[in-house]
Specification:
The chain is mainly alpha-helical and 140 residues long. The chain has 6 helices and 3 strands; from the N terminus they run βαααβαααβ. The chain starts with a strand and ends in a 6-residue tail after the last strand. The chain is elongated. Strands 1-3-2 form a 3-stranded antiparallel beta sheet. The protein has one domain (2-134).
Length: 140
Amino acid sequence: MQNTGLLRRLAAILYDALLIGALLFLATIPFIAMRGGEPVEIGDNTIYRVVLAAVVYAFFVGFWTRAGRTLGMQSWGLQLQGPDDSKPTLAAASVRFFAALLSWAPAGLGFLWQLWDKDQLTWHDRISGTRIVYYPKEKK
């Protein structure tokens, strides 16, 4: 078990982004139906924006608290752990979710910070008290 590298972490993020895109598409269908097939204007529709944000939040926090990993993380052998190597609590996963948004805000600097951090942790790892570890596949 070791803290994961940045490239493996970014690969899992890309995989999860594809899954989230599909979920957001499905969440949009009822809004299009309510408008009689017309496109939904995100800027004018607060409820729509809240639903989209809730879908993304539920995806990450739900997977992190239940399995300790998203589907993208599972594909890359990654696991999210709390300070005692257990699955994160709802509170820790929620803090991590919002702290990750802060890590993306300054052009991803919070993620890149891992390259200089002595423990290879990102801003949201440190803020939430969690970390992502890599479990290599066992050789047969």
